[in-house]
Amino acid sequence: MFTLLSGLFKYLFRKDEFFILILGLDNAGKTTFLEQTKTQFNRNYKGLSLSKITTTVGLNIGKIDIGSVRLMFWDLGGQEELQSLWHKYYAESHGVIFVVDATDETRLEDSWRAFDEMIESEALVGVPILVLANKQDIQGCLKVDQIKSLFNQSAAKIGKRDCKIRGASALTGDGVNESIDWIVQCVERNVYRRPTNTGDTS
Q1: Which residues are bridge partners to 18 per DSSP?
Q2: Contact assessment for residue 31 and residue 77, using Cβ atoms and an 8 Å cutoff
Q3: Which of 23, 32, 45, 128 is the least crowded, having the fewest Cβ atoms under 10 Å away?
């Protein structure tokens, strides 16, 4: 009887687990976005001070639960020498959030090149991608349409996957909920890569 009840409990409370990569150049605001996401979706979470976050060297990990969905985030360093390690995580990922610093016009083309190289990987075929035009709270930043005009050069490589460019401010939280809602919808309906089921409700 206990085994039956235990199995029923695990079935009712199981979560579909999806792994989401957070990529982009250094200082784009990837870790700030991750911390803001954990703050908004994890009750009582008290993490890093957003104003004191420094450049990531290596990997930051985060987790949020939304209903029956669990998102596991891998926030990877964006320095040029670390970009060569991104591909090691592609095969296990279900979605990508590519963060662009909308205040740094001088490196916008570098950001697009990193994005363009990323989507060429066969390991990411069919994986939904959200391009986040970050730092929209700062006066004089590039707007979504300006960033879209450059990133649209990669349109032919995107294929049938879901892909969207939207604005946000990781620092203030504007656009974070909407971004996460979009990525959840995309990974849930994606037929190319199915979730990992877990009975862990913690």
Answers
A1: 71
A2: no
A3: 45
